[in-house]
TrEMBL record:
Gene3D superfamilies tied to this protein: MFS general substrate transporter like domains
Keyword Membrane: yes
Encoding gene per record: LOC106776897
Keywords for this protein: Membrane, Signal, Transmembrane, Transmembrane helix
Domain of life, source organism: Eukaryota
Protein name: Protein NUCLEAR FUSION DEFECTIVE 4
GO cellular component, one term: membrane
Domain Nodulin-like: 7-254
Membrane spanning stretches: 71-93, 99-124, 136-155, 167-187, 207-226, 238-259, 357-375, 387-408, 420-443, 455-476, 488-507, 527-550
Primary location: membrane
Lineage, uppermost ranks: Eukaryota, Viridiplantae, Streptophyta, Embryophyta, Tracheophyta
Limits of the NFD4 C-terminal domain: 347-555
Length: 569
């Protein structure tokens, strides 16, 4: 029981780390002050935002560090990078030191890299301590990363609402303090042999994850309501204390582990997990590998006995790697280089040769990445529309709905038996709000339209960010997910640069007033064509995701059909 309690302590510590290390999401809160201090154009400001996102390019370094250093050391290296990156920027913005522009760029790059290191630590902690419930542990903890901007907004309002530079100081110090708080659970991780991998353990843990998800929803609603309130410092401190209470409250779970028997008999049995359509967890991801191995060993027999077996639609085999269909009409598009089955391992070289990967890449590039760039530009967007006082509200809105989007990404796992739909189909549905939001922004410059669009974009991008790891694992293999997903997210710095440059060029071209040496644009024209272009790109991303769904639907259907047969036996 002690080992079981410790793993939940680790999960709570991981939630804390994720909640306070998404420091790139509050860039809009201080970007205007940074632009004014450095007397730079919107294009140069975009380069700083891109540098924050470019840290993901060096995310591989955290994996390398973990092969040679303990987790506790890696997390403090990440803290040190953030402390140095944000701390020196804060000193410069307070005029305590003087830094040239290129050093701001390098410090932003270092800060972005620290976020990747924190994420890797959290990823490893979830995998190591929840081998059976890994999908639920990952989706829950990653969701809290979307709350970072709302938490930092509430913290800043409780100290000094008028200081934009305060965000940089908080970005530097809070992750370090959080790492110190998480250190004890990390050092006291249970030994691997004490962690049960049985299906029964997964079912026992499922209700705890359900409770944690409900608690997460309440936390998100609380922050949405109070994080950006215009209250005084004293009231904001009370609100911030409430947020901390919600984050600390999961600590009660380790104590309840000792009452597991009563909890299981009184509550868990009422869900009737095995016989209902209410599924909380994939029962051991290793079962997927067992199924795939059995598929490969019996491919010919199965395809001869079932026209819609586990391979292509026509039952043909092509070296266990490819399945091609020969229907009519658009089959050349839908059938070329089609996936034979889910979970088949792909090397990096094989991935970049797959049509499905590039459809997936475009969908992410034209969906989630646009949402991230939009959040980086929220400060200037609000300022150009005369809504500077609403920047914190908009950042909180984006952060909170990004959090809800991340939580929603787990819904397919919860309703799998009652309503099964390919995860790539859910990805397409998750992309749909983005073009709707940019259409609304293009046709209206009202504050209400801006808030609704920000919420929709946050919801959509949060869903994509959280769902992407599972999609990558299913399409290109769980053992290769770390490498393949890092290839996928190279689109983030590329998109941050290109989309940001587009927005900055249009902004600077329409700037007509000057404050010092800084160009300032006011009015709808500052971002109108940006919204039109971004909206068009998001439509391309939606089309790409729909095509990906149509190409992979057969593989998901075959896998689910086979899984259902196994569960009946």
């Amino acid at each position: 029981m002690t080992g079981q309690s410790r793993k939940w302590m680790v999960l709570v510590a991981t939630i804390w780390i994720q909640a306070f290390t998404g420091t790139n999401f509050d860039f809009s809160d201080y970007s205007s002050s940074l632009k004014s201090l450095l007397n730079i154009s919107q294009i140069k400001l975009n380069y700083l935002a891109t540098a924050n996102d470019m840290g993901k390019v060096f995310g591989w370094s955290s994996g390398l560090a973990l092969t040679r250093l303990p987790l506790s050391v890696v997390i403090f290296i990440a803290s040190a990078m953030g402390l140095l990156g944000y701390g020196l920027q804060w000193l410069a913005i307070k005029n305590l030191i003087s830094l040239p522009y290129y050093l701001f760029f390098l410090l932003s790059l270092l800060s972005g890299c620290s976020i990747c290191w924190f994420n890797t630590v959290c990823f490893v902690l979830c995998i190591r301590n929840f081998p059976v419930n890994r999908p639920l542990a990952l989706s829950l903890t990653v969701s809290f990363n979307g709350l970072s901007a709302a938490l930092y907004t509430l913290a800043a309002n409780s100290i000094d609402p008028s200081s934009d530079s305060l965000y940089l100081l908080l970005n530097a110090l809070v992750p370090l303090l959080t790492s110190l708080a998480a250190l004890i659970p990390i050092l006291l991780q249970p030994p691997l042999d004490s962690l049960s991998r049985s299906a029964d353990a997964a079912r026992r843990n499922s209700v705890i994850f359900l409770v944690l998800n409900f608690l997460a929803i309440f936390t998100g609603i609380y922050l949405l309501l109070f994080a950006s309130s215009t209250s005084d410092e004293a009231t904001s401190r009370i609100y911030f204390g409430g947020a901390i209470f919600f984050l600390v409250s999961p600590l009660c779970i380790p104590g309840t582990i000792y009452a597991r028997g009563w909890f299981h008999n009184a509550i868990h049995s009422s869900f009737q997990v095995e016989g209902s359509g209410f599924i909380l967890v994939h029962v051991d991801d290793l079962e997927l590998h067992k199924e795939l191995l059995s598929r490969q060993n019996s491919t010919l027999n199965l395809s001869n006995g079932d026209d819609h077996g586990l391979l292509g639609e026509n039952g043909s085999v092509h070296g266990g790697q490819r399945a091609k269909t020969s229907d009519v009409g658009c089959d050349k598009v839908l059938g070329q280089d089609q996936l034979a089955m889910l979970g088949e391992e792909h090397t990096a070289a094989e991935v970049v040769q797959r049509v499905d990967f590039w459809l997936y890449y475009i969908a992410y590039f034209c969906g989630g990445t646009i949402g991230l760039v939009y959040s980086n530009n929220l400060g200037q967007i609000a300022q150009s529309l005369g809504l500077s006082s609403s920047i914190s509200t908009l950042v909180t809105l984006y952060s909170s709905f990004s959090f809800f989007g991340r939580l929603l990404s787990a819904v397919p796992d919860y309703i799998r038996n009652k309503f099964y739909f390919a995860r790539t189909g859910w990805l397409a549905i998750g992309l749909f709000p983005t073009p709707v939001a940019f259409t609304l922004l293009a046709v209206s410059d009202s504050e209400a339209a801006l808030k609704v669009s920000t919420a929709l974009i946050g919801l959509s991008s949060g869903f994509i960010f959280a769902a992407a790891v599972a999609v990558t694992s299913e399409l290109f293999g769980p053992n290769s997910v770390s490498v393949n997903h890092n290839i996928l997210i190279t689109n983030i710095p590329i998109g941050s640069l290109l989309y940001g440059l587009l927005a900055a060029a249009i902004y600077d071209a329409n700037a007509y007033s000057v404050t010092g040496d800084t160009l300032v644009c006011m009015g709808r024209k500052c971002y109108f064509w940006t919204f039109v272009w971004w909206g068009g790109m998001s439509v391309l991303g939606l089309a790409s995701s729909v095509l990906l769904f149509l190409r992979t639907k057969h593989a998901y259907d075959h896998f689910e059909r086979h899984r259902s047969r196994i569960s009946v036996q």
